Amino acid sequence: MIRLLLPRYRLCYDLKIQRNDKMNIVSRQWTRIFKTDIMHNQFCILGRALAYKSAFSLDKLYPTSNLKLFTPTFVPDDPNAKFDGYIPIKELDITYSRSSGAGGQHVNRTNSKVDLRLHVESATWLAESIRNKLLEQYKNKLSKEGYLIIKSELTRSQQLNLADALQKLREIIWEVAKPPSEIPPETLEMKRKQHLRAARQRLFEKRRRSEIKQSRGAPTMDF
């Protein structure tokens, strides 16, 4: 009985050894592939790091910037800002007309030019200080009715021209909404000295011209 079981036991033992050998071979192959992949990635990264870069490359022009394209840019809101960039289109008077210049039949048949008008006094969505500054700084560009007119025919697209006109208006409002910069005392003192120097020079020139005119007169003879 024992003699009959020994061959079967040896056969099972041999099969188990062969199976373990196959598993070891497969695991070794996977380990070799994994190591090769890691070494390849490290070599590629090292190659990119040691590659030649021009003096005008982004890494050298902006060394402290994150050059990843998928990184979103976040602009924090300023709680003290009087204008956040939002312009309600319903509060504007927008008209379209034919653009000038070259462009073929498309220009002659489409109204791509944008004429944007903002009535400053009735623009309640703007702060009163901004409206007053607009009326003061752009008084020569306002119409008789008090409209600030902005035109755009930058492209042959009506929507792009509208976006360009809105951006122009947005930049004007941002420029007006900026708080006045504080002048340092050194600059004020320098301007005061320049003003005094100019006043002295003006009095000197005036006195010199007066002496020249007096010297041109007829000589007087005393008897």
UniProtKB/TrEMBL annotation:
One GO biological process term: mitochondrial translational termination
Family label: Belongs to the prokaryotic/mitochondrial release factor family. Mitochondrion-specific ribosomal protein mL62 subfamily.
GO cellular component terms, A-Z: mitochondrial large ribosomal subunit
Cross-referenced PROSITE patterns: RF_PROK_I
GO molecular function, one term: translation release factor activity, codon nonspecific
Residue ranges the record marks as coiled coil: none
Prokaryotic-type class I peptide chain release factors domain ranges (all copies): 98-114
Protein name, UniProt field: Large ribosomal subunit protein mL62
EC number: 3.1.1.29
InterPro entries in the record: Mito_Release_Factor_mL62, Pep_chain_release_fac_I
Pfam families xrefs: RF-1 (PF00472)
Matches recorded under Gene3D superfamilies: 3.30.160.20
